[in-house]
Structure formats: C-alpha cells, structure tokens
Amino acid sequence: MTAGGIDKAGMPSHVAIILDGNGRWAERRGLPRAMGHKKGCETLEQIVEDCARIGLDYLTVYGFSTENWKRSKEEVGALMGLFRLYMRKLVKVANENNVRCRMIGERSRFDLDIQEGIEFLEGQTAGNTGMTFVFAVNYGSRDEIVRAVRAYARDIVRGQKGEEDIEALTEDAFAGYLDTAGMPDPDLVIRTSGEFRLSNYLLWQCAYAEYYITPVLWPDFTKDELMKAIESYRSRDRRFGGRNEADDTLKSG
Ligand code: IPE
Ligand code: IPE
Ligand code: MG
Question: Whose CA is nearest to atom 9 of ligand 2?
C-alpha cells in the first residue's frame, strides 16, 4: 500500500518531535532568538503538511515546555506572539490537509485570547478525518502525570469511583487520565539539534518508543530529514521486552 508514493510497510503510526535549535539557528546568524522561532514556525507548518501527506496517523510536536517560562521575558513574549499568529495560520493548513488539531499541556496559564485561539483551532478542525496533529504547549510530562493523579483522586472523593477502584486501577485506565487519552503511544521520537534528552516530554507514553537524534537545527529540518528518521525507524527491531525473531532462527538453525 502506498501513500503519497511511499511504501506504508513498517511506517510509524505516531511520530513525536522535540523541535529544538531555533535559538542557536538565529544566534549563528547574528539574529535575535525570536527570528529562529519565527523560522521554526514556518518549518512546522511545512512538516505538518508533509506528515499528513505521507500518511501518518499522529504527529505530536513539543512547542513549549512547562520549564520554558524560565526564559527571558522578551523571549517568552515573542513565543506567545508567534502562538497567536501561528494558531490562526494552522486552522487553514490543517483544513487544507484534512488534519485534526489537538493541544496537550496545561492551558490555563496562557492569556485568555491564546486559550480561546486553542479552542478555536480544535473546534474548526474537529471534523477532519486524516492525521491528528497534537501540539504540546505548556506541556511537561511530570505536570501531566500529577494532574492525572489529582483527577483520579477527585473521582474517588466525589464518589464516581469507590475505594475498591484504587487497587483495580490499570495502566490503561491511568493513561485515560493523561492529556494524551485515547491516543496511541509514539512509535518514533525525533529530536533536532543533537541533544540526547527527553526534556520532560511524554515520559509515560515513550516507554517503548524508538529514538532518532539529528544534529540539524529545527529551522533547517526538511522532509528529507524526516524521511531519514523514518528509514532509520524501519530498520529497528522492536521487541517490547519479548524475544526477537533472530533468537528463534539461532535456536532452530
Ligand atoms: C526550541 O528551540 C523551541 C523552544 C524550546 C520553545 P530553542 O529555543 O530551545 O533553541 P536552542 O536550543 O536554544 O538553540
Ligand atoms: C525542549 O527544548 C522543549 C521544547 C522543544 C519545546 P528545550 O530547549 O527547552 O530543552 P533543554 O533545556 O535543552 O533540555
Ligand atoms: Mg533548546
């Protein structure tokens, strides 16, 4: 089966990206960091379209972490300005590509107009049936897990669940309290700019993800780079803690 001329065999269903290196991209050109973020938004627009065309089911992108508030007032301000602009542009890009958009993260910390922009984007694209684009903003995995525990405790206290449910809680049921409820776990995590860390991204969900790190800075990331990551993913042997086929061949041969 092919999608956009691509053989679908062994394709990841869900790709998660840690877009990184916007600041360095700008600094290397003697530009303000905000210019790197602006170029990064343009890259993201293109990659959302590329991912939809190659037939991914889910693309989840880390746009702003719970720790990114520590940056200078100027940089945070520039990022908020870009969110405002980019969310409006994204409605068009998403609808042209049959993409449904969903935001994860704690949105109440954003200014009201940004929160409304998020709701507008989700509402305007809710009927699309192609790829789901998930944008992680004011997202932190530890924060997400703590919020999930609070929500579960609230259900117990309010009587929607009883004390017996404490022991009956399963991994799947717990995952239903996370921001990513209903989504499959990422198959492949791509991080740009050569950093080998998760930076508080999808810690629960990436338990068995495959990782691909590229030195390319996010503003320079292209569809070719994306396809290199996917090719690398296709050559991996995912075992999920079980035996691999090579073990069987060794024994029988
Ligand atoms: C990623 O680029 C965007 C955000 C974290 C908001 P950075 O701003 O982290 O770029 P570097 O890592 O400083 O180059
Ligand atoms: C992670 O990148 C957050 C996002 C990509 C939004 P950072 O640049 O903030 O991560 P660290 O500080 O290098 O770990
Ligand atoms: Mg960074």
Answer: 68
Q: Which residues contact 13 (CB under 8 A, 6 or more apart)?
A: 56, 57, 58, 184, 187
Can 185 be counted among the known catalytic residues? no
- Residue 64 near ligand 1, beta carbon < 6 Å: yes
Q: pLDDT 10s per residue in the chain (253 long)?
A: 445 556 678 999 999 999 999 999 999 999 999 999 999 999 999 999 999 999 999 999 999 999 999 999 999 999 999 999 999 999 999 999 999 999 999 999 999 999 999 999 999 999 999 999 999 999 999 999 999 999 999 999 998 888 888 899 999 999 999 999 999 999 999 999 999 999 999 999 999 999 999 999 999 999 999 999 999 999 999 999 997 666 556 555 4
Please indicate, yes or no, if residue 55 is contained in any of the structural domains.
Answer: yes
* Residue 65 exposure: Cα atoms within 13 Å on the Cβ side: 16
C-alpha dist (Å) from residue 237 to 22, 229, 240, 244: 32, 15, 9, 8
Count the residues in the chain.
253
Query: Which structural domain, as residue segments, surrounds residue 82?
Result: 2-140+186-233
| Residue 138: active-site member | no
Domain membership flag for residue 176 = no
Q: What are 3's strand-pairing partners?
A: 6
Nearest CA, atom 13, ligand 1: 23
The answer as to whether 84 is a domain residue is yes
- Specify if 174 maps to a domain: no
Q: Which atom from ligand 2 is nearest to the alpha carbon of 20?
A: 5
pTM for the full model? 0.94
Q: Cβ(68) to ligand 2 under 6 A?
A: yes
Give how many domains the chain has, as a whole number.
1
CATH number at residue 205: 3.40.1180.10
Whether the CB of 200 sits within 6 Å of ligand 2: no
